Amino acid sequence: MPNIVSSTDLRNKYNEISAFCNENREPVFITKNGQGDLAVMSIDAYEALCGKLELYRMLDEGRTAVKAGRKRPLSEVMTDIKCSIADGEL
């Protein structure tokens, strides 16, 4: 269940809200005049969310490439990676 507080609570109970976000890695939704206004989360939760979005983007890019016929055998890819590591490129 989402944690919802008013903008007044954010001002008056900042430390409690910060502790909740950091301990639970969940956002707190802030209302203003009874309407949703902001979502507040810890830096760690934000970075994890950004990482997931980047992963989803990369997976979608790969899926699109496969559909377009841009694919290679795994053995060929692994050989290229090993060569790049040996050459100090990775």
Which labels suit this protein?
90 residues; elongated; 3-stranded mixed beta sheet; 17% strand; 2 domains; 3 strands; alpha+beta; single chain
* Total count of helical runs of at least 4 residues: 4
Rg of Cα set = 22 Å
Order of strands in the sheet with most strands: 1-2-3
The amount of beta strand, in percent, is 15-25%
Segments where pLDDT lies below 50 for 5+ residues?
none
SS class: alpha+beta
User: How many strands, which pairing sense, and closed or not: the largest β-sheet?
Assistant: 3 strands, mixed
Query: Rough shape?
Result: elongated
Helix content: 55-70%
Write a structural description.
The protein has 90 residues and is of the alpha+beta class. It has two domains: 3-41; 45-86. The protein has helices at residues 7-12, 14-24, 43-67, 74-86; strands spanning 3-6, 28-32, 35-40. A three-stranded mixed beta sheet has the order 1-2-3. The longest helix has 25 residues, at 43-67. The termini are far apart.
Summarize the structure.
This protein has 90 residues and is α+β, with helices and mostly antiparallel strands. It is built from four helices and three strands.
